Amino acid sequence: MSEQNGGTQPPDSEQPMRFPGDPEHGLNPHIEPSHSPALTPSYTPPPTAGSADNEEEDEGMLRMSFLEHLEELRSRLIKILVGGGAAFAIAMIFAVPIFDWVIGPGKYALQQNGQGDFVALSPMERFSIIWMWAPLVAAIYLASPWVLYQIWAFVAPGLYPRERRWAAPFIVITVGLFVAGGAFAYYVALPFALTFLFGIGGSDSVKNTISIDFYFTNFVNVLLGISVLFELPVVVFFLTLLRITTPGFLIRNSRYAILAIVILAAVVTPTPDPVNLALFAVPMILLFFLGVFASYLLVLHREKQGFPWRAFFIWLGSIIFLVGAIVTIAVVQYGYKFISSWPFLTR
């Protein structure tokens, strides 16, 4: 032992013990153990690649209180009523031509059967149908773009900026499908169904005398019913956009969708025969799969994948060319001609 230490410490105690990783003395009580930066309370994780975009999207969303939502809803409803009233006023100016257009499919069906006419069974029937209900139906179609725009404007504050870019396509496609459904009902479904109905039995002893009230009720049910059903692709697409469903799920459960479509078609169809049922159901089924296809394109866009559009348009062009060739041969070689109603091509 060293004398300087009073014989109490070994000679090598003058050299302090050192431990790996200690700055100076391994047992120094003032030295805090090292921690991972991610475990410290004041640690802030580094920003991710999409955090800035998410913050911008959150800032882009309009924050509204419950009362502000009610006020916005009230404002949109007033604008819808004003636009609908203006469309109804315009339609009333052309009430008589509109009514003549409404009974067009019925007149065609009666002419196909060689007999029958429309009658009014009460003094108010002509006034209510010609001057009130027929202009109202026309106003629904005239005001549909304005109504859909107001609906979108009410929903838009709760959407991200990238989702608000769907406004114009949503309005154009929705209105287009709504009008296309009305056109299909007017030019295809109604003439075919009414011709079948008026010709049941084939007896000359019974004359078709149709009340305009009864006819108009069935006309509106079929016209508006098919117009609403033609919105099926939009519904399917937006269910996928909101991540409520997927194209794979829709395809796997397509048999249930087809069953539901056939049931809806049976409700809308004015006749119980299977031919008219198929006439209504087949376009609905095709529209359902069109919506599934649009949803599939949306999923591909989310996953940054492309779609073989070139091959798709080649196949589509081939089908159109084949159909055109068949129609041309039917007109030129076999004497078929075009008409303004179903089936559009006859001898």
Question: Outline, from the CA principal axes?
Answer: globular
- The overall strand count is 4
Which ranges are low-confidence, i.e. pLDDT below 50, for 5 or more consecutive residues?
35-43, 49-61
SSE string, helices as H and strands as E: HHHHEHHHEHHHHHHEE
- Tally of contiguous helical segments: 13
Q: How much strand? A: under 5%
Helix content: 55-70%
Average pLDDT score = 78
Helix/strand class: mainly alpha
What is the strand arrangement across the widest sheet? 1-2
Biggest pleated sheet: 2 strands, parallel
What is the terminal separation in angstroms?
Answer: 129 Å
- Taking all Cα atoms into account, the compactness measure Rg is 36 Å
Number of domains: 3
Chain oligomer state: single chain
Structure description:
The protein is mainly alpha-helical and 347 residues long. It folds into 3 domains: 67-230, no CATH class; 235-307, no CATH class; 312-347, no CATH class. It is built from 13 helices and 4 strands. It has helices at 51-60, 66-93, 95-102, 104-113, 123-155, 161-164, 167-198, 212-229, 232-241, 247-252, 254-268, 274-302, 309-334; strands spanning 117-119, 209-211, 337-338, 345-346. A hairpin with a 6-residue loop joins strand 3 and strand 4. Helix 4 packs parallel to helix 7. The longest helix has 33 residues, at 123-155.
Question: What is the element layout, followed by pairings?
Answer:
Blueprint: H1 51-60, H2 66-93, H3 95-102, H4 104-113, E1 117-119, H5 123-155, H6 161-164, H7 167-198, E2 209-211, H8 212-229, H9 232-241, H10 247-252, H11 254-268, H12 274-302, H13 309-334, E3 337-338, E4 345-346
Helix pairs in contact: 2-5, 3-5, 4-7, 5-7, 5-8, 7-8, 9-12, 11-12
